[in-house]
Design goal:
Blueprint: H1 2-11, E1 20-29, E2 32-41, H2 67-100, H3 137-147, H4 150-157, H5 171-186, E3 191-203, E4 210-215, E5 218-223, E6 229-230, E7 235-243, H6 249-256, E8 265-270, H7 276-286, E9 290-294, E10 310-311, E11 344-347, H8 350-360, E12 387-392, E13 395-408, E14 413-423, H9 431-453, E15 461-468, H10 476-484, H11 486-492, E16 493-498, E17 508-513, H12 518-526, H13 538-542, H14 559-564, E18 570-576, H15 592-595, H16 601-621, H17 631-644, H18 647-651, H19 658-680, H20 686-701, H21 727-739, H22 746-768
Parallel strand pairs: 6-10, 7-8, 8-9, 9-11, 14-15, 14-16, 16-18
Antiparallel strand pairs: 1-2, 3-13, 4-5, 4-12, 7-12, 13-15, 17-18
Helix pairs in contact: 3-16, 4-9, 4-16, 9-16, 12-16, 17-19, 19-22, 20-22, 21-22
Length: about 775
Amino acid sequence: MDHARAAISNLFGGESMLYTRFSIARQTDGDNSHVEMKLSADDAEEGGEIGRPEHLHAGMHPPWRNGKNICFLVLAAVLLLFIGFLVGYLSYRGRMQKASGCLDGSGKCEVTPTASSLADGDETDEEVVPGPPVFYWPELRSLLSGKLSDTHLEDNLRQRASMSSFEAGQSKDESTAGYIHEQFMSFRLDEVWNDEHYIKLQVKGSSNNKVSILEDGKEEELESPDAYVAYSSCGSVVGKPVYVNYGRKADFQKIQNMGVSLNETITIFRAGKITLAEKVANAREAGAVGALMYLDPKSYENTDQLVPFGHAHLGTGDPFTPGFPSFNHTQFPSVESSGLPRIAVQTISRGAAGRLFSKMNGRECFSEWKGGVVVCSMIPSSTSNMTVKLSVNNVMVDRKILNIFGAIKGFEEPDRYVVMGAQRDSWGPGAAKAGVGTAILLELARVISDIVKNEGYKPKRSIIFASWSAGDYGAVGATEWLEGYSATLHAKAFTYINLDAAVLGLEHMKISASPLLYTLLERTMKGVTDPKKESGSLYDRAGSDWVKTVVPLGLDNAAFPFLAYSGIPVVSFGFWNKDEEYPFLGTTQDTVENLKMIDKLYPLMRAAAEVAGQIALRLTHDRELFLDFERYSEELLAFHGKFLDYDQDVKMVGLTLNWLYFARGDFQRAVDALKRDIANSDRENKVVRRVLNDRIMKVEYDFLSPYLSPKVAPFRHIFFGKGSHTLQSLLENLQLLRTSKDSVDVNKLKEQLALVTWTIKGAANALVGDIWDTDNEF
């Protein structure tokens, strides 16, 4: 070949010739792959770089003299092209065969130059730098499953074994934060850092709160528990006791329909169905001055003397900086959340509630309200002068809390990330409430970092691991972080995975999630073995219609502010027993020993870790974000069907639902347009892919009503938020229009229709992408 080059060089004037080399870059994502051929020319400089041959030089040739030389040169050029074609084809074929050897199911492939790819003059004994390993999704999933360890999960949970309290901002909470920080560092995460927040918390005073019975001028102490309810009003209140089942609005309405006045009363309700804060808000709206809650034995077995802790703030985050972050370098005027209860609240034991019911001696409870107590009276007898006195001695304190973060940075889009987090604090030992989630968080950080650092996997996007404090007070740590970075998080964080209370039983799965994640969650459940049966998948346990059983997020779920405040898709799931709640949650008996009573505890924790890990890895592995934006079309269509029943009722007050229907149609057309754009795009083009992914990311955020102040109405999501701007509130007003037309404010209804319509229309326009493609007419 050297002689051939010299001859050709002589033919064409002796100038140094450029030559080409083929390089193979394997681009892989999802379950598909291809081999990309790149043509690169060496620089024409002499004395080449490492891996580049020295250019060949030849002497000057005599000038051309006649036409024969020209014909000869033409024939030589044709021959040269033909030879070059053959050489290139054989080289290409050999390299493709080499590359195809990577598809042997080993899970990763290192692409190295073959002998046929080495041009003359290359050093064959030089060190070859291998290309990055390529991971296909099935192998990556198996790698995750193989590295998760029951033993590590048990060791992580054992950190809670000898502790009695991890109250936010106290020594045990801070020492646990330090331990998690050290663990993140030992896992060699790319970044590890803390966020400090300075918040106001209400804690128990120097003496226990007290519940007493006043009768015939005598005061009898009913109970003085160690537990308390944060953000209760302080002082003493007295009122007649009234039992209102679970404290739902329908329960209050039912007892008021009996002609029972709830003004100046102390309401009693059992735990469950809705959050304590919602129960208290309903009691305050009905006119009560105090509220008591207990654990009913029908749902919570073996809890006669257990008294749960809780909080009564109808919201999340620090209630004294609503809508603002509690950073130390910021100062805000004194303001309080509208979600503070304004009435006295306390939890009592089931035994104390039973003694109180026996004293009331009035009308017996409805059969469906009776629960598991032996005697159940709704109100005292008409001749009774018995009242209840509730004394609350809680105090306000200023505390510093720490959120701990660790990050694995993405290799293509490091500024786009999935966040997985767990509450760290608890009033008691908190084994089930905070220990399980923290153990899973640490194990996933260890395993995923190992896959990246030691196996060579390169996630396209980043993964953030977060340990929150003050979760028991209403997701305070998580909410303050969201408030502190609200200007950017919605454009960067595309999913939050909540690990709190992931194992509370064995029988069933409880799932709360954004519709954008339904498809991914379903596929994930199909790939995770059910630890209960040790055969089959979690999907078999959940059932094919599991979407119908999705539970709405509660205010006390750390995922709630991510979805309803920041517009970030979320998933929160866990194992539980359908007919029996975990009895020790939120009590001083939430210990590791009691948690171990759940059969297959550690396999269940491992299964939960596998679900969360697969979701995180899949969202950072694929070229396109695995967010099913079509699902919201189905959600809107479901509401459309419910609204249709009230068409005539709306027309009777001079309004129409047509504009709302048209907006839904616009959203469906926008979904179809994005599907076409994805199908017709060059998926290898990273710029195009990022633009399309950004359009998918914004779907959730665009359902936050832009017409409300986040300070006044922080939960602006029209599907999952709280307030008159939501689709559910609009539906309730339409129902009221039919049953009690005179009680409906038509102007308010008109405003509701307008705001919901334009929120959906705005979401459709944002999904389309370019402003010139939007449909500006209904």
